[in-house]
Amino acid sequence: FLFGFHNSHTSGRHRGHDVPLPWFPHSDYHYEYTECDVFGSRWRVAVPNKADICTGLPDPVHGTQCAFSCSEGEFLDMQSQRCKKCAVGTYSLGTGIAFDEWDSLPSGFSNQGVNPNDEDIFTNCSSSTWTPKGDYISSNTDECTATLFYAVNLKKPGIVSFEYVYPDEGIYFEFFVQNDQCQSTDSASRWMKISETKWSKYLVCLNLTGNNVLYWRTTGYVVAGSEVKPVLLRNIGISGVSYTSECFQCKPGTYSEKPGSARCTPCPVDTYSNKGATVCLHCDPDKYSEAGSGTCKPRPACTVSDYFYTHTPCDSKGKTQLMYKWIQPKICSETVNGAVKLPASGEKQTCPPCNPGFFFSNSSTCEPCDQGSYSNGTACIKCPVGTEPVLAFEYKWWNTMPKNMRSYTLRQWLSHSENTTGWEVAGEYVYTTPGDQDVDNQMLTLKVPGYRLPQSVSKASENSELSRISFVFETTCSANCTFSFLAGYNQWLNDVVEWWRGSQAKQSYSFLIQKNTTDSFTWSFQRTGKNSEGRKHSGDMARIYSIHIANVIGGVASQCRRCAVNPAGFSSACVPCPPGHYMVNGTGVCKSCPPNTIIRADQSVGVDACIPCGPNTERNEAYTACRSDCSLDVLTTEGERMHYDFSALSNITSFQSGPRFTNKGLRYFHHFNIGLCGEKVRKMATCVDNVTESGNEVKGYVCQSTAVPSGIRSQSLVSTQPVLIGDALIGVTTDTTLSGISSPDWLFPSATGLRDVIFYFGSSESTLACKEGRSATVRLRCNPTVTAKDLITLPSNCSEGTCDGCTFHFLWESQYACPRCTTNNYRAIVSACIQGIQRTTYVWQQPLQCFGGESLPPPVVSACVSLDFWLRFGVSTGTIAAVLLMSISCYFWKKTRKVDS
Q1: How many Cα atoms occupy the beta-carbon half-sphere of 322 within 13 Å?
Q2: Of 97, 686, 722, 810, which residue is 20 to 30 A from 638 by alpha carbon distance?
């Protein structure tokens, strides 16, 4: 984007400017400055106010240096060329510009919408820009990149400030500054934090003088096609630009009582002011006004909706007083015809009992029971041996507001928050008091220190249900009221979980808590969302009768449960069972589980508490999970034993799918992390959201996140929407089906006869689409030609890794996925005997389907006898035998003749 020097004139849309206004009041002429020369100097010249005046003007004189500026609350007197303080009733930003009205785009701002993709995909983003909305400007909500930028020339280092609302993590929002030396804001600090439902203020120092361009940039990211909330901006202020040659009158509803004011002060409640006021005037007794008002309005007659009641703490006699109070600020009149009076306070009533887990102390206050005890709200009782307290927060009696709950009123979300009471206790319930305005949000917030599963429940079930919050409520409305329930994940992120519109009968609602990042809950009630003034629907209200949160750290107990399963770290209140043992019917008698089994992560008793590990896996030392040590032995159909060693593949391995595209053409990828196997203390595969402040994180064997290419933001990888696919190892086998999970061969056709080794993983995290939870299969295929360790592919007909959305399939080809070589994998080749020498050479059987293990033996050289030697030896031996035979024949012939004679 271009840099430039912006010349602007003061208007109702912004205060101040970065070059001086030329007007200096005089009957015949006024003063102006010439353009600055290369030395930073200029001249002050007189300019006639009428065309026919050509003589008698003051001579030009040297002007102030171009870097000269006035402070806040001052203006430059062109006659004396000195800074003077603004008079009372006026103000000046000095060296600043302020943009506080957004009926249209102020002069000097530029707006641009572009396609963020670097692919050759046509997407029309020309209309995806920031939109002025009167008091603020709103960003786009689609998948285009909308940029609002402003070029400013700084005379000295200054500050840029603005207020923003950033409620939705489905849109990226960044602010950065680039100067004429091509220096830009650090990439780590340019990303804005998610805000709550109120305006957040942001300040950035502008350290370099000269040309600077300010950028506000948003990019929507809606993979599922759902809508996102826009980013809102207002009250942009920039200091360090130049000076102002005049001061501005305070607008109605504000005043300045001292000379040299940099800003005007809003008038308090029940006062008003006109333009340029030095003091606020009180409204007449029969009229009222809100803070910052320029007029007063007649007071309406008081009604029953203008007051509320509450209870005092219990006294030593177990009594509480009923107290009536006017809603503050009080705007109604008790003297108008038909007005009601405030009922008398002080009526005593019997205090309700304490909430479960508490008891009445000697001072008649409710105190929590000691650890290992429980109560129904009266007296504390020790949990019996073999049980443990069920820790929770449970509120069903409302005599005083609990210490970890806060009530306040949030003004219209385009205004500021005020710490006024929004909810009051009423014995059997807590209810919303009549608000100052029907559009106010009456907030009730409950803070939670964290969650911990009972000692009898294994950590393996944390992903399914860590805790649960339930509450009973009702609403009574004459208008279109809204009752909302929000879950807070940190100080910036507060998401609406559920909301109800209009009157609602008494009912219960439950919300499952799966992670320890949920640290607060908020109930909000708004009588109407229409911008109407007054209290037309102040009788509308919401009531909450009870709230219950399970497994809370620092909670109290209303009951105890049997310690059915006790892994290591059991509570002293429970009957301890050694690791690998289960309790027989809660009797306290412990029996050992069979070999290679783990303890079930629920309250099962008896032998059903022991779960056998899957094929080729072994239990861990805590008896809570099955694991693989990365080794495997497989028998072939010929009875041959093949040994595998996958330890080279044990590290966390990452890979991503091919590019995917949203409806608008935004490119993204599915990023996977796999932790296959390993030692007893194994690092888990982790997927995290590094876009928003929520920092959501999942850990397990297999996880997935959505990755946006680095062109969207200045990071190597942008990851969001982490999903856990597998957090438990079910088994390792060459079978294509295990425990209901199938990995058919047609997903990854193979041309070799060697079967793949399949790792089966499961997840206890169920969803609406995957009621049985997600699962994953990782096929390890022997490929000696692959030297890389991370050649992982997805099924060709299921490009996202899953065909049904619940079971994911991966093919991992590697030489480390081959069985270890043995003597059966090579053969001997014996050469011919040449000159009495014979060689034996060993070669691998082809195709080679092994890696490592046995090495090829070295060639063997041995002595031998050739064929012609054996021929000569045979002829000689035959000749000798023939001569010997003839000699013997002759001998016997002669001897025979002597006998005959």
Answers
A1: 13
A2: 810
Q: What are phi and psi of 871, to 5 degrees?
A: -70, -45
The residues with which 177 forms a beta bridge, in sequence order, are 214
**Furthest C-alpha separation in the chain:** 187
Over residues 637-649, the mean pLDDT reads 87
How many helices and strands, by DSSP H and E, does the chain display? 1, 69
CATH number of 104-241: 2.60.120.200
Phi, psi of 54 (to 5 degrees): -125, -15
Q: Could you give the CA distance from residue 463 to residue 478 in angstroms, rounded to a whole number?
A: 42
Domain spanning 352-558: CATH 2.60.120.200: yes
Cα distance between residue 444 and residue 397, in whole Å: 16
DSSP state of 398: B
> Would you list the DSSP string of 138-161?
E---SSSEEEEEEEEEESS-EEEE
Which residue ranges make up each domain of the chain?
104-241, 302-351, 352-558, 644-817, 826-863
What 8-state DSSP symbol labels residue 824? G
Q: How far apart are CA 540 and CA 534, in angstroms?
A: 14
The per-residue pLDDT for 117 is: 65
Q: Which secondary structure element, helix H or strand E, spans residue 896, and what is its range?
A: helix 867-900
Find, among 239, 206, 211, the residue nearest to 94 by Cα.
239
CATH 3.40.50.2300 correct for 644-817: no
The DSSP call for residue 895 is: H
Predicted model pTM? 0.46
Q: Is the dihedral of CA 394, 397, 403, 406 positive or negative?
A: positive
The predicted structure's pLDDT at residue 867: 60
| pLDDT-derived band at 695, boundaries 50, 70, 90 | low
Chain segment 698-729, per-residue pLDDT in tens: 888 999 988 876 554 445 557 778 888 998 99
What is the identity of the amino acid at 9?
A: H
The separation between CA 796 and the C-alpha centre of its own chain, rounded to angstroms, equals 32
Same fold, 352-558 and 644-817: no
Q: What is the pLDDT of residues 84-107, one digit of tens each?
A: 999 999 988 877 778 877 888 888
Q: If you compute the radius of gyration of the chain from its CA atoms, what whole number of angstroms results?
A: 42
Residue 890, number of CB atoms within 10 A of its CB: 10
The single residue listed with the structure tokens 């934090």 is 193
H-helix or E-strand spanning residue 888:
helix 867-900
Say if residue 787 is exposed, middle or buried (CB neighbours under 10 Å; 0-12, 13-18, 19+): exposed
C-alpha distances in Å from residue 711, one per residue of 118, 148, 172, 536: 8, 19, 13, 51
Amino acid code (one letter) for 715:
Q
List Cα–Cα distances, 178 to 175, 712, 858, in angstroms: 10, 18, 68
| Phi and psi at residue 20, to the nearest 5° | -70, 145
Question: Which of the residue ranges 147-156, 214-223, 561-570, 613-622 has the most confident prediction, judged by mean pLDDT?
Answer: 613-622
Q: What are phi and psi of 837, to 5 degrees?
A: -125, 135
Q: What is the DSSP secondary-structure string of 836-857?
A: TEEEEEEEE-SS----SBSPPP
Q: Give pLDDT, residue 123.
A: 67
Handedness of CA 145, 148, 151, 157 (dihedral sign): negative
DSSP string, 615-659: TT-EE-TTSS-EE--SEEEEE-TTS-EEEEE-GGG-S-EEEE---
Centre a 10 Å sphere on the Cβ of residue 839 and count the other Cβ atoms it contains.
15
Rounded CA-CA distance 89/707 in Å is 55
Q: Is 491:398 a contact under the CB 8 Å cutoff?
A: no
| Residue 740 tokens, joined | 């209901």
Task: Return all residues near 35 (Cβ < 8 A) that are at least 6 apart.
Answer: 42
Q: What CA–CA distance (Å, rounded) separates 628 from 645?
A: 11
